[in-house]
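[Q] Does anyone have a clean structure-token version of this?
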Amino acid sequence: MRIEFQDRLAVVTGASSGIGLALCAALLQRGARVLAMSRSLGGLQGLQESYPERLFWHAGDVTSSEDLASLRLRAEQLGPVDYLVPNAGIAELADSLDLAAFDRQWAVNGAGALNTLAALRDVLASPCSVVFIGSFLTRSSFPGLAAYIASKAALGAQARTIAVEFAPRGVRVNLVSPGPTATAIWGSLGLSDEQLGQVADSVAQRLLPGHFLDAAAVASVILFQLSAGARGVYGQDWVVDNGYTLS
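[A] Here you go.
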């Protein structure tokens, strides 16, 4: 797999922290060139220092058509794009009937991911692998996160049909759905430290190893999905959740 990624170009959004950052690190370690898009440099600074000739940071927001247009221009200069992971995502607690909350989360989690693919469709290589990021919660429930779950479920529905439409172009489209992962997204829910601790303890009780995933574990599955090892996989959703949805 290490040789396979050598000098290939990967585009990753939401790349400055969490799963996106871990994926960028894994790709760079395997010799890939990475065009990483995020609103701030964040954790990419260390990778940029280690891989100055292969990591290309692009400041931008996936909800901005102008930013996606500039991402396309940069990809054209570096491309074609062999791997695409529209990873940018947000989550917020809200009333289940608060449709404005759905709109906000869909703008990033769904429309942001789909618009990223739309912006780059003409600079994709053949073959190319695209991995969208779903959520284990589309198979479960979590009070206060209905809008978040709905945004991910809608993305999954779109991705399955896109997989059929893009296959003749040599583009494989799939999803990876992370389970409870130790990333900064939990801190964005507006819960106090005590509340977060209670949620973490409750969730951990359902995890077979008894602990949250680390971002690198999810990145490893995405990496395999991108690789030729998964060349026969189309339109599938791989759940990586430490067994949460089994109980």
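[Q] Thanks! Anything notable?
[A] The mean pLDDT is 94.
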